[in-house]
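lol ok so funny story. i was supposed to be doing the assay writeup but got distracted and ended up predicting the structure for this chain instead. priorities right. anyway since i did it might as well share w the group, maybe its usefull for someone
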Amino acid sequence: MPYDPMLVQPMREELTRLGVEELRTAEDVDAAMKRPGVTMVVVNSVCGCAAGGARPGVALALKHTVKPENIVTVFAGQDVDATERARSYFTGVAPSSPSIALLRDGELVAFLPRHHIEGRTPEMIATALTGAFDELCAKASA
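and the output, tada:
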């Protein structure tokens, strides 16, 4: 049974106010995965490591000059079908909430699972993400 929408709304807004696009259905996820370029998918959660690490870490990382072309989120335990569909694109990794995936043209290229979020500071998470952004998202020099 999904979490109460009133309970999770403030947790959703921590990301949407940063411009992160919510994907609420499996169809939304499929459409996002068809977009060209690098897509960051934040699997949001009600847990403490999402509140203390993942969401603040994403907020810090999004201040970086290099970012993915597409930045989206699904909410585990709320948008069940969207979360399941997003995880279907995370090939070779176990389901994890929270987690952050980077996909290039729909193919998984980097993944930050819960055990790399839990116990880490937002700054540590942001450093991991911005390093991946620099590696995967930087435009080729002309």
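The first helix runs from residue 5 to 16. The radius of gyration is 14 Å.
back to the writeup now i swear
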